[in-house]
């Protein structure tokens, strides 16, 4: 039988598995034998019509392959297109699975998919792929087109791309806690409710956790709280909101993509309810996945003063963001509350001459920082230090093991996998709030008191000292391979950086790390037979496992001072490491190991450290007493 080159073994229609091959491949074709079943011919004609429209070579029928099995799949042809009864097909395959596998293997078609359903040979191989036959009428046309080799389903058909989603999950967690002191009513017997202070105190909303800070006003009006100003223990309301998304994709065979996204917002408000204007102290933390790949993989050198395009844009965006915030305050009025109550400013329109937006504040610097390093427009970036759920961007991990299908690689490698991963998070490590902040009635927009001028200045309630963007290519590109002789090879390049903005000090710290790792491993099974040792235990493989790794790593930290306009390196190390290990299974309970480590460290700044070289070597005996 001639070599089959492209998508030749196609289960289509008729009373048996049908084999087709490309006309004109492998030399001059012999005259094709017409199928015995008219339905097979009709399906073949429909396929060839598609192939002619796409400029592809036509398929011909091969009776020899049909004789491999008499599997009945009960399809029928409707309007010249094959329609498959999936349930009947699956049931028959289960019955005939072993027989089909053996017959195809004997004919030289190795089965590499765990679940055989019949299939088609991918281009350049003589193996079989699994096909999933659609039962939805809308997908019949797409299935036939794909069978004809005419369309890349993942690219040309959005519906079929949606079918590449293997799994998807979403988790939402909302945790609330309340701690309110000076509560007067006694705890009742039924759900903690008491009738001595009005209808059901503290209320079913409190009992089932459906309260927020507004509960304090209701409790004060009903006389449930003592309100003693000599007791200053605040009411504490804590809330944690977490969103997690995960999607598994496989747009083409062997290409697996994992998308993950997370947003975690922790807030704690402490309210001094015993005072008239209820001063509130806010603190918490925030983390969200984002994407800063637009400015990634950019180095900085002392030759040009550690120049950075992203940092230059950051400085350029600061006045633009400040102007946006000024526009937000333009139509506001100074509130008649807090430190402004009864003052000459209360109720008057906002005037920047009294005190405008401070360009050195976190309200301005954080949006400019995010816009510059994530590659976004400063005119559209959110001005909130806590971006909403709509601003979340996924991280990803990609693996591809289809390289082994190229050429003769499958004869050399047992497995060959490419790996790429990207992780990026934006974090507000911790924040507090201004006790004298007064709400302007427009969300987080309000005013604080400037201690020097004693005038109100625009500000959010949050006192955020630092935020950071942590980005990792883990790895940017990785390759792992296993040969048929049990030799394993791996190589990867990793790149990471951490950008920390300290708005109070007017500084930006950039810490970067670049690393290349190359490794190899080899397992010698039953090493006792090579040493010609006797007395090996039954059921124990006396394997000798060898591993060697080489790595080169470059770490660097820079500090950029905005007011001084300087950038300088604060630390850095260039490291080379060699690691060799050997492990020998002497018996069921005893394993012998030997290791050698050698590391060379060279500081990038001679004043911070000295060059060092460290070597470690030794042997170890692992004794297992487990039954």
Write the layout of secondary structure elements.
Blueprint: E1 19-22, H1 38-53, E2 59-62, H2 63-66, E3 76-78, E4 81-83, H3 86-106, E5 119-120, E6 129-130, H4 137-147, H5 153-156, H6 158-162, E7 165-179, H7 204-207, H8 215-221, E8 235-252, E9 255-271, E10 280-289, H9 309-329, H10 362-374, E11 395-400, E12 413-433, E13 438-442, E14 445-449, E15 456-459, E16 462-463, E17 466-483, E18 487-502, E19 507-524, H11 527-531, E20 544-561, E21 566-585, E22 590-603, E23 612-623
Would you mind describing this structure in some detail?
- The protein is of the alpha+beta class and 627 residues long.
- The protein is 18% helix and 38% strand.
- Strands 7, 8, 9, 10, 11, 12, 16, 17, 18, 19, 20, 21, 22 and 23 form a 14-stranded antiparallel sheet that branches. Strands 13-14-15 form a 3-stranded antiparallel sheet, with no helix packed on it.
- A hairpin with a 6-residue loop joins strand 14 and strand 15 (456-459).
